[in-house]
Amino acid sequence: VLRGAALRCRSVERAGRATDCLLLSYTFWRKMVLGRTPAHLKAMLRNMVTSLIKHERIRTTLPKAKRVQPLAERLVTKCKEDTHANRGYVMGIVREEVAVEKLFLVLGPRYKERQGGYTRIMKLADRRKGDGADMAIIEYVDREGELRRARPPRPQGPPRPEY
Q: Tens of pLDDT along the chain (163 residues)?
């Protein structure tokens, strides 16, 4: 009986062997969804990005921080320009009105001149008690009370010649 990730693999029907497909798909799927169902993962990412917006720094496990970082960066990029479409996109992910207003009124203008790299992940030396998971802090850069100063922007090289 095929269950879980093996059902999602198309080569099962063709090859007739579930073992190879199950091993490859299962490990990939577990890493991708952090051991959660897709609905649980979506809810967790929404909650984490909302907490990150409200507090501007959260402490979590390293895989979760790596997974929430692109979503947080994308939201700040959308909030640089306050349009109806951008506001609708952000409100579809962040459900708290306080966090949405903070994005558009505080974080968007703060990073208006910055082209990406709004967040930083710092690994912590101590592991979580109980399961020994790697812990990390994800925070916005260029803010009051940050743990480490942001690097100055790299100087731009000469312009590329057009052919």
A: 445 554 555 444 444 444 444 445 666 666 667 778 888 999 999 999 999 999 999 999 999 999 999 999 999 999 999 999 999 999 999 999 999 999 999 999 999 999 999 999 999 999 999 999 999 999 999 887 766 766 777 788 888 888 8
User: Rounded to two decimals, what is the model's pTM?
Assistant: 0.73
Cα separation of 106 and 112, whole Å? 10
Q: What token pair was written down for 116?
A: 């990406």
118 burial level (CB within 10 Å; 0-12, 13-18, 19+) = buried
Domains of the chain and CATH, by start: 1-33 (no CATH), 38-140 (3.90.1030.10)
Amino acid at residue number 67:
R
- Provide the Cα torsion 125, 73, 76, 146; round to 10°: 20
